[in-house]
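We now fix the convention by which a protein and its fold are recorded. Here is one such record, which you should read through line by line:

>
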Amino acid sequence: MERERVRLPILYGSETGTSKEMAMVLAEQCRQRGFAPSVMALDAYPIERLPNETLSVFLVSTTGDGEPPSNMIRFWRFMLRKDLPRDSLGKLRFAVFGFGDSSYVKFNAAARRLRVRLKQLSATEVVSIGLGDDQSDMGVEMMFDKWRRDLWKCLLELYPLPKGTLISDAPRKWKSVRMNDIDDEQQQQPKCPNVTIPFYDIPSQTAVSKNAQLGAVIENRRLSAEDWTQDVRHVVIKLSRDVNYRAGMYSSTHSTHSLIQSINHITKYTHTHVHTHTHTHTQVTLRSCGLRMSKLRDSIMK
C-alpha cells in the first residue's frame, strides 16, 4: 500500500542559476521517494501559504556583500517584519542549504540568516544547515550531495516508505543503447559515434544581454600557486565604454569563440565525443554520469 505523497516545496534563491539547478535535481529525487515537490523561486512563492506548510527545503545563494539574490529580496523583506507572530511557523519542518564562497567575509550569509529567522518563528530544523563552498576541493556539488543524503535519511525516518520500495536516483532520460557483437577486425578499428548525454534535462542558459559589450583580455595572471588544485586568475578586460556599477553587482562573460573551440580543453581529457553545431556567445555545459562540468576556460583565458 502506497503512502500519501507529502507536499514538499523546494524554494530557491539564485543569482546565476546554481541553486535553481540543484532544486530541479532534488525535486526528481523527491518523486522517487514518494514526495510531491514543487520548485519555485522564493519571490514567486505565495508566502501566505508558509504558515500552513509542514515541510519545505530552501536552497539559497549569497551574492555581493552577504546579500540575498535578486529573486529572494521580497520574500526576505517580508520575513523580517517585526509584526510576524513568534509562533507563526510552528507547523513547519525545514532544511537549508547555502551556496557561497569562503573567500568572502560574509560566507553564506543569506542562508545562515534565513535559518535563524525560520527558527525565530518557531519552525523546526530537520537536518543541519549545509554550507556549500566554491573554494572547496570537493566542489559545491559534492558538498550538496553529501548534505542531500543526510536530508533523505532524516525525511525517510519522518515519512517512511512502504517496505520493499525501490529507489533509483539514476537520470530518467537516458536513451536505450543496443550493444552488438563485433568481430576482431571491427574491434581493432572501433568507430566513435556521436552521442548526446542529457542529465535531468536541465537547459543551459545561453542568452546574452542586450547591453553586452565586446571586450578584449589585456591581462591574464594566475594568482594561485602552480601546484595548487584550483586555478584562480586575475583577468583584466578592456571594454569599449565605461560601465557604472555598485557593490554587489556581478558580470557574465561569454566567449566569442566557437562552441567546438570552447570544449576542446574538456574533451582532450575526458575522451568525450561531442556532436554539435558551431555558434557564438555560448556557455558550454557537459553533463555526464551525474557530474556537471561548466567551463569557459582556456578559449578566453589565452
User: Anything to note?
Assistant: The domain at 6-158 is CATH 3.40.50.360 (Rossmann fold). Confidence is low (pLDDT under 50) at residues 173-207, 265-302.
